Amino acid sequence: MLLPDSNRRRLCAAALCTTLLYASLSAQEERAAEEIQPAAPGKQADVHLEMGKMWTFENPPLAYLEKEYGFKPNEKWLNSLRLASLRFGQGCSASFVSPQGLIMTNHHCVRDNIASVQGEHNWIRDSFVAKSLDDEVKLPRLTVQQLIASRDVTAEINRGVSAGASDEAVSGKRKANEKALLVAARKEHPDLTPQVITMHNGATYQLYLYRIFDDVRLVCSPHLQTSHFGGDPDNFTYPRYGIDFTFCRAYVDGKPADTSKYYFRWSTSGPKKGELAFVTGNPGSTGRLNTCGQMNYLRDARYPILLQRFDDELPIVKAQAAVDAAYDKRTKAQVLRMENSQKAVRGYLNSLLDASLTEAKGRAEALFKGKIAADPKLWAEYGSAWAELEKINHEKTSLEPKRSFYAASPYSQEMRRAAALVAATDEARSEKQRAAAAKQVKIQLTASPVRQKLFAASLRRAKQWLGDDDPVIQLLIGNRTIEEAIEQIQKSVVADAGEVDKLLDGGRKALESSGDAVIRAALLVDQQAKIVGARMAELNTRESVQATRIGRALYAAYGNSVSPDATFSLRFSDGLVKGFPCNGTLAPYRTTFYGLYARNVEFDNVHPFDLPEIWLARKNKIDMRKGVCFVATNDIIGGNSGSPIVNTDLEVIGLIFDGNIEMLGNRFLYRDDVPRSVSVHSDAILEACSKIYEAQRIVDEIRTGSK
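^ thats the sequence. predicted structure below, dont judge the formating
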């Protein structure tokens, strides 16, 4: 299950409040020249390969496609591919698959939206099928975005940027230019929504204009267990048997949208072994232009802290869900996201610890730097960027534990209330912010065994990463055990509503004179978090400017012959339907219903390999030879969930929903020897709709549109 970075960030909030005694690194002299290592003999690095195949529509690689496959799409083909493709919600992809606004995406992309409207039903678990247009259920706050037009705005974004200006000045000028550009675009195109898209780390910029469909309704979705068959064990694996699809519909003025000019027809034959296929969607983010210094920060600090949180929290949450049905229903979608994020982050971290990948990345970087060094003008302009990024990320590595843990714990109500008290009495905050914090102070405290277990885990992590000598660790834990520390925190004066009212009335002076450890910790955190936050913001600004230099260097050396890193904007990717070597044998290019039911039997119908009763009862209706999933070499990442995969005739042959575990390393360097995209087979969707869910009207709509 490919989840976008926005969801991962939402799941990775800080776990504990603490403080920073900041000490900057001593400055290092900039090297006048850097040693350039050539690619090792027999292991030729290739910057083109490293950057992958996430092509933009404004710069399609026509010569490459013709040379590689003998296929050269024309303008009509590219426009049809673009206009039938959608950005779905805040983190997925989708496509129009009928003339009446029918939208195809993944079940896991719509779960939160379904949860918001299912009420007493459990449509996520039990499936949903609208028998008619009147039964289709509106999904509030969900939009889909269709890319209508684009133009290059690089010169406009860089207008007024002075050579030799500070990083902060450069960043500020570009942001001001972008803001002015968007204001003008909204005035010129009031019916469209503009967005400036950064390409090649800021070497180029595009203005994208989107049509927004804001009336989206649920049409048909399968059982959770069907879409998520195999659960976490099978996630990021292959062979695979998940039938992860959902159909929605776009409406305009209360009627199904007229999409007769731009939709994908349905293939009658499905994917064929070895055929050329295209994925079109909105990959979230990749780090293929990251330097080795930037990757070291992720390896040594960012990913280990995130992964440890998932490893701690998931067993606690899942144990509670196993004994509390209401809790299970309420948190099901969240748990699935956490499981996916856990496995993804583990895969990213393992990739950065994999010598074969890091060596290949190092060779590609050396080749790139060598090309820049060979041109004195380019080296003078860009050569110092690698060393600057290494220094910046070395400091970020030292700050990351402090950044991660300098916040009120989401699991300790006492600490949250203390933080709210501090915010409510802070004259540096706006009146509106202080009023909002004062409301938070008044929220009643409620006991929760799950929250207490999560808090204990967060305290252990904080102590590990920050050390026993940290001032806030000393205040909250000291020489006590974690359990004793929590008991002491729960006795804080902030647990007494009357005392809290007195503190709020007394203002900042009352807080500063308090001897309560939790209040003292909150005050210290508030002070020091501002320092850490400001420093990280400064470092991130500097990093952004230096990363832009790397991007400009790449663009100067290779131009549009390399694809830009993903930016959750529309791309298309070429690939072949193709199996791969796996566990000493071969993984087939496709799986079938024979395999789905066999896996169910082999695991004795025990979760997560169980099947809904209706799937067992109607088993004999299924054509067991039909495909369930298949793999291809297309270049994807989180955000591509819900992407259609089509043949050269622009017919749907499948629906992207995952990749194999080897694909996760492609976040940093693209390879296609073993990494694969994993799709739901087009046949599986039709078999499920017609023979399990009795959604024949959907099948007829798809097939009619394909004639």
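The mean pLDDT is 91.
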